[in-house]
Amino acid sequence: MRAKPIALSLIAILAIAITAGPVRAHDGEVHGSCSGGPSGFRLRVQPGVGDSLRVRFEIEGDEPGQRWQLFMSDNGARIYARTKVSDDEGRVRVRKATDDRPGRDRISATGVNLDTGESCAGSVSF
Known about the structure:
elongated, 5-stranded antiparallel beta sheet, 4-stranded antiparallel beta sheet, Immunoglobulin-like, mainly beta
């Protein structure tokens, strides 16, 4: 009879482990861990001036001077693509305004560390 409670406990633990991931999201913001390294990221979307949205993408690593290739899109249309170098604290930040399109906007951001191969990605529907 003990097998049933143990099996149910294992199923509950697996369900929690599968549904819980490194990315945490709430209204207009997502953050999480990056793959292949120690960095973390945050993507935030807020209303801007007029019919615009303010987009902020930040990666916090542990090494200054690393090169990051950064991409951002709004509903699949590229709004930013550049290479930036992390600052003295190991951070890379991008701020960009984009048009608030009709309906929900899906803002996506990706960063790839050209020195280590580490990658960060997230998206927000706003």
